[in-house]
Write a structure and sequence with these properties.
The complex is a heterodimer of chains A (325) and B (417). Chain A contains 14 helices and 2 strands, in the order H-H-E-E-H-H-H-H-H-H-H-H-H-H-H-H. Chain A has a two-stranded antiparallel ribbon with strand order 1-2. The two termini of chain A are 37 Å apart. Chain A has 325 residues and is an all-alpha fold. Residues 1-24 of chain A have low confidence and may be disordered. Chain A is globular. The N and C termini of chain B lie far apart (50 Å). In chain B, a hairpin with a 2-residue loop joins strand 4 and strand 5 (130-131). Chain B has helices at 2-13, 38-54, 67-79, 94-99, 119-122, 147-153, 164-177, 190-198, 215-230, 237-240, 267-274, 310-322, 324-330, 340-346, 352-364, 379-394, 400-416, and strands spanning 28-35, 58-65, 86-89, 126-127, 130-131, 133-146, 259-263, 278-281, 295-303, 336-337. The chains are: A mainly alpha (325), B alpha+beta (417). Chains A and B meet through helix 2 and helix 13 of A and helix 1, helix 3, helix 4, helix 10 and helix 16 of B.
Chain lengths: 325, 417
């Protein structure tokens, strides 16, 4: 995880570029004549330099810093595992931020995917105005990562905001959703769910790959709508569902911008939207504990790695690949 | 070909080429940076030009940005050993920068004259007894209120010397007489706790940077403000938690409360929202009349310890603080000048809100106690922690006592690190 850019929203899973380059590398060695190798290196060099200077070096420095106490001004002081020990044993806010993030991942990701799939199914079956509706539903994903949409979201759900006013005409006087510890997390999750456009587009592409004869065969066998969805659509769509699940989970763990903006940068009220990356930012840039922040970043990297590995393992039992069957 | 690529990248990243260090045409080159806006930039550049005319052998490169990006940029520059020769500093940066050896000890610079700055104000730029920065402008805590609504509610307007008890009573009366609350709940900010604490002869920190109050003090403060909040005398938790420093997000600025505490340098924001009935009043004093309010440097100026031209840098610092013509040009762009004679010179030329703020400060001259010395490193994190923790009291998730104890445990470890 890159400490410099905690608000990075759309990042490919780490490690993918490396394996690609390794594959390209071995391919050149085996199949291409030697004199062409030079050209390959030249074309690769900007990327390699970028990866080494801008990704690998900062990562290694951050790993080193995670074992130090560093306030940016005085030289880093080696403290061994102190940062990690403090994090796990005597920092209640660390656990609070981890719990908030976990709840958020468990709420936002399944709901977002469910909405994306439902809308994709609806859009797949309509004939007229297809293009318009697809763009309309995709637009929030394009805008959503920005600060401004998060600000609008905050204004909508704030005390005296549109949503608040609307509800109070029906007799629910909330006094602002983002100002109540019990509701603020939900508002941030809603913002994410609303941005279902990217997984929706992928679902749409997946739906169009399902062979039509399967539905016809199912219909002949007397399968109703629901049955067809459960026995044909879902299994055929499972690789796409898996892809979306992995991608959205990784992104959700790194959620930053919406929480930062909606909560005014503090993760409030009363720590209810203190997400992991928000706390990391707070430790690093407000409290000047860069070493501690680096340690947090590495723990996050490891946790995301483990969760992704678990997802891949579970995939064996529920993801259905056509070419194997 | 690889070399071409490397050279290309170098060009893009810059810094690989020859650096333009040293003298430009035999002149000494100084870097001077500050935070602020275009208005401040205009007068600052004008003053700097005058300085260059007077010192033909010195050339000053100026740069500025908004406060937040300035603070981050300066930290990065300082961490890399490239701090500008002369820099505008915040009260809360002094300890950190000085203890890291980044600031020039100004005591040893004979070019700097500090005769016209009170010793109390000078102390705000000191760290472990050495003078690392000189205050430029001064500001003070202020209570802003909507006098029209206060009068309509039939509540007496505040005057100097009112106590925290008087304040509480006024808040309750306002809460009962109107459909709004009397004030923005002051429990959210360490700044207002500090005023309350100083009124009781304590302070946030001792001169050596240790905490100078205990959990009972903080618990009492929070218990009082929280009770007022529950009685509808000051803003409820869901409004208090919105506060982010901007006037527009203060319950007073939003029109939900009839008064609020702020710094006199920020009054302009409220004037825009409230209009002509906005009035300024001093903050309440302690039970025996001890004022907690103080004059604080709105910003300071210092020089880099790594500057190759310490004499030239101190000349510029002296010029900006003491030169009468520079004072005339700079006006109140950095708050009311700390230099006594310059302040007296420019006060009659002020008008509107600037004038009212100047009069407000004048009315307090001689009444207030000396400001505390610069807060210790780690204080910045505590400021945010204070508001965060008060949320737990306001939303009744934790008792004031328990929350205060937690805040102090956290504060002690934050100050140690």
């Amino acid at each position: 995880m890159n400490v410099e850019a905690p608000d990075q929203q759309v990042s490919p899973p780490r490690g993918r570029p490396d394996s690609e380059s390794a594959a390209a590398d071995s391919a050149t060695r085996r199949n291409r004549p030697r004199r062409r190798e030079g050209a390959a290196w030249v074309f690769l060099s900007p990327w390699l330099l970028g990866a080494a200077v801008l990704t690998l070096t900062p990562m290694l420095v951050s790993l080193y810093l995670s074992f130090t106490q560093y306030d940016l001004f005085t030289a880093p002081e080696w403290v061994g595992l102190d940062n990690y020990v403090h994090m796990f044993t005597s920092d209640p806010r660390y656990w609070r931020s981890a719990m908030n993030t976990l709840i958020y991942v468990l709420v936002a990701v399944p709901l977002q995917l469910a909405v994306a799939l439902a809308v994709a199914l609806a859009l797949n079956s309509i004939g007229r105005g297809k293009g318009f509706y697809r763009s309309a539903f995709y637009a929030p994903s394009l805008l959503g990562a920005s600060m401004s949409i998060a600000l609008v979201w905050r204004a909508l759900f704030n005390d005296g905001g549109t949503v608040d006013d609307l509800l109070s005409t029906f007799g629910f006087d909330m006094g602002g959703w983002v100002n109540q510890p019990g509701w603020a997390l939900l508002v941030v999750a809603l913002l994410t769910i609303w941005q279902f456009g990217a997984p929706m587009v992928i679902f749409l592409a997946g739906l169009q790959q399902v062979p039509h004869e399967l539905y016809e065969a199912a219909e002949v066998d007397g399968a109703g709508r629901m049955r067809r969805f459960l026995s044909v659509t879902l299994p055929m769509l499972s690789p796409v569902l898996f892809f979306n699940l992995v991608l959205q989970t990784i992104q959700a763990f790194q959620v930053f911008t919406p929480a930062f903006t909606v909560s005014g940068g503090r993760g409030g009220p009363a720590d209810s939207t203190l997400f992991y990356t928000l706390y990391l930012y707070d430790r690093g840039f407000t409290a000047s504990h860069m070493g501690y922040a680096s340690a947090m970043a590495w723990v996050l990297l490891v946790v995301i790695g483990i969760v992704t590995a678990l997802l891949f393992r579970s995939a064996r039992s529920w993801v259905f690949y056509n070419d194997k069957g | 070909m690889l070399t071409t690529a490397v050279l290309l990248l170098c060009g893009l990243l810059a810094g690989c080429g020859t650096s333009a260090d040293g003298a430009a045409g035999g002149k000494i080159e100084l870097q001077f940076s500050w935070w602020g806006n275009a208005d401040r930039a205009e007068v600052t550049n004008e003053a700097v030009e005058l300085f260059e005319q007077r010192n033909p052998d010195i050339e000053v490169q100026t740069s500025f940005s908004s406060y937040n990006s300035y603070i981050q940029k300066l930290a990065t520059q300082a961490a890399g050993g490239n701090a500008p020769d002369v820099m505008q500093l915040d009260y809360r940066q002094i300890s950190q920068y000085a203890s890291a050896g980044l600031l020039l000890d100004l005591d040893e610079q004979s070019a700097i004259n500090t005769e016209n700055v009170t010793s109390a104000m000078l102390r705000t730029g000191q760290s472990s007894g050495e003078q690392y920065a000189i205050p430029m402008g001064r500001t003070s805590q202020v209570m802003v209120y909507d006098s029209a609504r206060w009068q309509r509610a039939g509540v007496a307007e505040p005057e100097y010397g009112w106590t925290w008890q008087d304040w509480s009573r006024a808040m309750r009366e306002l809460g009962e007489a109107t459909d709004r609350t009397g004030a923005t709940d002051p429990g959210w900010s360490e700044d207002w706790f500090e005023v309350w604490l100083r009124g009781r002869d304590k302070s946030l920190y001792t001169d050596s940077g240790k905490l100078n109050y205990d959990a009972a003090d903080l618990a009492q403060f929070w218990r009082t403000t929280n009770e007022l909040s529950q009685q509808g005398a000051v803003s409820p938790a869901r409004q208090t938690t919105q506060i982010d420093g901007s006037a527009a997000n203060m319950p007073f600025g939003r029109g939900n409360a009839l008064s609020g505490f702020t710094w006199d340098s920020a009054v302009g924001g409220f004037q825009a929202l409230i209009g002509d009935s906005l009035r300024l009043a001093p903050l309440p004093v302690g039970p025996d009349g001890t004022p907690g309010q103080y004059f604080k440097p709105s910003m300071l100026i210092g020089a880099s310890a790594n500057s190759p031209h310490p004499e030239a840098a101190s000349k510029l610092v002296d010029f900006l603080i003491n030169d009468p013509r520079a004072g005339e040009i700079l006006g109140v762009s950095r708050g009311l000048p700390v230099n006594r004679t310059i302040r007296e010179d420019i006060t009659p030329t002020l008008s509107g809100l600037d004038k009212r703020i100047a009069e407000f400060q004048e009315s307090l001259d001689g009444e207030l106690l000396a400001p505390p010395s610069a807060p210790p490193q780690g204080d910045l994190a505590l400021q945010t922690a204070f508001q965060r923790d008060y949320d737990h009291v306001g939303f009744e998730l934790q008792s004031p006592r328990r929350t205060a104890e937690q805040f102090l445990t956290n504060a002690r470890s934050e100050l140690q690190r």
